[in-house]
Amino acid sequence: MAGKLSRRDFIKRSAVGVIASGAMLSTINIEALTRSATAAKAVFRKTGDDVIVKLSENAALTKTGGSVKINDELMLIRSSETSFLAVRTICTHKGCDVELEGDKFVCPCHGSEYTMDGKVTQGPAKDNLKTFETIFDSDKGTVTIKTGETVKEQ
């Protein structure tokens, strides 16, 4: 019976497929995938080196404590009804991406911790995260981040 697969061959091939699939899945960083899927990406426009974020286009910023990622290195956080924090999310110790956990930034690589406004509270990092001036225009419903540098879009 040419073309038919014996039960034994079917089980062997299935086992090889399961092992190969398991090996492939073990290389995927599920935590990073789910974290990036849940992080709010900002809608913004650039004017020169400034980044302008319209609150009506970024629902996460409608309440205090809300945050959006401008790009892989910059986050905007609403700290009160009328003030915002713009923080570079690159650890000053070894350059890992810090994560916002509650009311602090934590480096997953070596454990450094920073306040919401970027000040080091726990090493090994010695330098604060870089922060940028923000200007809130309540009439226009916008926040301008004065980066002084070109900001990459994602």
Write out key terms for the chains shown:
disordered C terminus; Rieske Iron-sulfur Protein; four-stranded antiparallel β-sheet; 154 residues
Helix and strand arrangement:
Layout: H1 7-25, H2 30-38, E1 44-47, E2 50-54, E3 67-71, E4 74-78, E5 84-88, E6 99-101, E7 104-106, E8 113-115, E9 120-122, E10 131-137, E11 142-146
Antiparallel strand pairs: 1-2, 2-11, 3-4, 4-5, 5-10, 6-7, 7-8, 8-9, 10-11
Give an account of the 3D structure.
It is a single chain. The protein is of the alpha+beta class. It has a domain at 40-146: Rieske [2Fe-2S] iron-sulphur domain (Rieske Iron-sulfur Protein), CATH 2.102.10. Helices cover 18% and strands 31% of the residues. The protein is built from two helices and eleven strands. The strands form two sheets. It has a seven-stranded antiparallel β-sheet, with no helix packed on it. A four-stranded antiparallel β-sheet has the order 6-7-8-9, with no helix packed on it. It is elongated, with a radius of gyration of 22 Å. Residues 30-38 and 150-154 have low confidence and may be disordered.
Uncertain runs: 30-38, 150-154
Overall mean pLDDT stands at 82
Measured distance between first and last alpha carbons: 56 Å
Tell me the name of the CATH homologous superfamily of the domain at 40-146: Rieske [2Fe-2S] iron-sulphur domain
CATH topology of the domain at 40-146: Rieske Iron-sulfur Protein
Order of helices and strands: HHEEEEEEEEEEE
Radius of gyration (CA) equals 22 Å
Largest beta sheet, briefly? Answer: 7 strands, antiparallel
Name the beta content range: 25-35%
- Helical content band: 10-25%
CATH hierarchy, class of the domain at 40-146 = Mainly Beta
What is the count of β-strands? 11
